[in-house]
Amino acid sequence: MKKTKEYEEKSKRYIIYMLVSTIVFLLFTFVAIRVIDINKMNSLPILDDLNSINIIIGIIAIPCCLLYYYMYGNNEFFILTLSYVSIFIEYIYVNYILGSLGLSQHLITFPFVFRIFLLTIAIFNESKYIRKIIDRKRLAIILVLIINIIGTYLEIKLKLSIFSYGENMLIWSIFQVCVLIYYTMLLALLAIRCMRKREFIYTIFITTISIFTVRRVFYFYIFKDYSNKIIEYNKVLTFIAYLILLIGLYIEIVRRIEESIRLNSQVNDFQKLKIKYKEIKAVEKAKGQFFANLSHEIKTPINIIYSCVQLLDINKKEGEKALWDSYNKYDNTIKQNCYRLLRLVNNLVDMTKIDSGYMNLTFVNYEIVSLVEDIILSIVPYVESKNINVLFDTYIEELEIKCDPESIERVILNLLSNAVKFTNDNGNIFVLMDADDDYVTIRVKDDGVGVSPELQEEIFKRFVQEDKSLNRKKEGSGIGLALVKSLVELHNGQVYLEKGTEEGSEFVVKLPNVRIESQKENDNKIIDVENKPLVQKIHIEFSDIYELY
After folding, report:
1. What is the band of 465 on the pLDDT scale with cuts at 50, 70, 90?
2. What is this structure's pTM?
3. 7-10: which pairs have CB atoms within 8 A and are 24 or more residues apart?
4. Which of 57-71, 157-171, 377-391, 489-503 has the lowest mean pLDDT?
5. 3-state class of 502 per DSSP?
6. Which residues, listed in sequence order, are joined to residue 433 by a DSSP beta bridge?
């Protein structure tokens, strides 16, 4: 009891510190805009590409908010995640569309009012609306995107901002102040809930939402003398808010570890304590490893892309030819690291879908031999630089089975990318197909470095890697094979690592040899929901093998 009370008091102090720091920072922003020299601000190299950085961080931050929801299972956090989707749409409009239309000083109101609605139902989370939203999460995200895009477009198209001019200016100003005050009251209620529950995670949401909200104040009339600073200043505030959101995720993992230790101290039964301790340590170790890898996997490509952009910016000043030569030199590097970020986000989103039960596959009767053979033929040009021989053999000529071709492509490409990654120059990769009455078997074998015996039992678990160090030679987030296992199991199939191989490794995929009885002939094609050609998928899957670029 004493440790519990100490922990709660410690949590309370941290929450108070964070809330007070938020208030101080918000007050500081009002002073800073008056004293910051816009010319010096524009001369900072990072501001040249801050929009793109904010877009990338925003795309990463939204799945991180979903991680908050799935960590806590708190309905409020999902509603707050929808608010960040709205904030992201508003940012794109303000910094990309309004500027091109000559409306950069336009104060967008629709997304803000929509976020007030979301925050209201989040505060009163026992309402029937929140239950409907939680029951249809994927539809809710799509609707929020559509509503914000269309609503903001109509606001700009109809020029609703006319109320801010002439004799209606006072009415418009009163309306803006009223909605801002109401939103502030909602944040205050959220802060009260934070103090009552003593959960630090609330302060992360309160701080970031407050920073995103305070950006609106700078469009008010009292700041008209600083209108030339507002756009650039708000970019910096957006970057800070997204950064706090991501850093908060790391802090919360540490907090959850402390919470686990606190709970363990209350367990009296030694056996139960021992089991619980092992489970918590395994989960926290996996989370810690994952977020360490995630930090490395995100920072590395972003740093490379940003370095290339800086070099392009330097060469731009030397003329078009210098810029063109520099672009040709760094084009592949930029694309590869964009593919690498896209691969990471795709894997995170898919694992989240699988965990939540919303990963729906489109099953058709498809000729599996041609599907695998086409993939093998397509990767051959990519491995020529390593002089790797890719050999395909099959004991069956044609066979249609029930499968989702899009998922099978990802499974085969992932296994092949691992084989290429861990096979030395002049090595060999063998792909062998066979079938019996029950299963179609696909074997992917290489003569590379292989998998250590102690890791063979864990290889399909999440975040497991042969080399866990951040300076490892082979890149990867450690969730590829876990995703492969999940996709194969969604086919009611099996995937495993063949043991006892003398050299290299051999992965075996078994898919049920069944058909859909009512399958139409014109459905016999690859169902690609993302409309990506196979070449682009190979680029994405092979993006962390630098030797191929």
Report:
1. low
2. 0.44
3. 7/258, 7/259, 7/262, 8/198
4. 157-171
5. coil
6. 394, 442
* Beta partners for residue 367, in sequence order: 400
Backbone phi, psi, residue 367, to 5°: -75, 100
Return d(Cα 313, Cα 102) in angstroms, integer.
25
Report the interhelical angle of 534-541 vs 320-356 (nearest 10°): 90
Ordered DSSP codes for 460-486: TSTT--S--STT-SS---S-HHHHHHH
Helix (H) or strand (E) holding 260: helix 227-264
d(CA 410, CA 9) in angstroms, rounded, equals: 49
Answer yes or no: are the C-beta atoms of 201 and 72 closer than 8 Å: yes
What does the pLDDT average to over 444-466? 76
SS (H, E, C) 343-356: HHHHHHHHHHHHHH
Category of 528 on φ-ψ map: left (φ > 0), alpha (ψ -120 to 50) or beta: beta
* Alpha-carbon torsion, ordered 282, 286, 289, 291, to 10 deg: -140
Topology of the domain covering 364-548? Heat Shock Protein 90 (3.30.565)
Say if CB 409 and CB 375 are below 8 A apart: yes
Contact 130, 79 (CB under 8 A): yes
Q: Residue-wise over 47-77: b if at least 16 C-beta within 10 A, else e?
A: eebbbebbbbbbebbbebbbbbbeeeebbbb
Closest of 456, 538, 462, 471 to residue 505, by C-alpha: 456
Position 44 pLDDT exceeds 80: no
Q: Of 284, 332, 276, 272, whose CA–CA distance to 305 is shortest? A: 332
| Residue 367 CB burial class (10 angstroms; 0-12, 13-18, ≥19) | middle
3-class SS of residue 441: strand
Give the whole-angstrom CA distance, residue 172 versus residue 146.
Answer: 26
Buried-exposed string 215-248: b where 16+ CB fall within 10 A, e elsewhere: bbbbbeeebeeeeebbbebbbbbbbebbebbbeb
Helices (H), 357-446: 368-379, 405-421
Task: Please state, in angstroms and rounded to a whole number, the distance separating the CA atoms of residues 69 and 76.
Answer: 8
pLDDT at 444 over 70: yes
**Partners of 392 in the β-ladder:** 431
Q: Flag the least confident range among 295-304, 340-349, 472-481, 498-507.
A: 472-481
DSSP string, 288-332: HHHHHHHHHHHHHHHHHHHHHHHHHHHHHTT-HHHHHHHHHHHHH
Mean pLDDT computed over 219-228: 73
Residue spans of the domains in the chain: they are 2-234, 364-548
Distance CA 128, CA 136 (A): 13
Contact 18, 201 (CB under 8 A): no
Say yes or no to pLDDT of 545 above 70. no
Q: What six digits make up the tokens of 525?
A: 């094609």
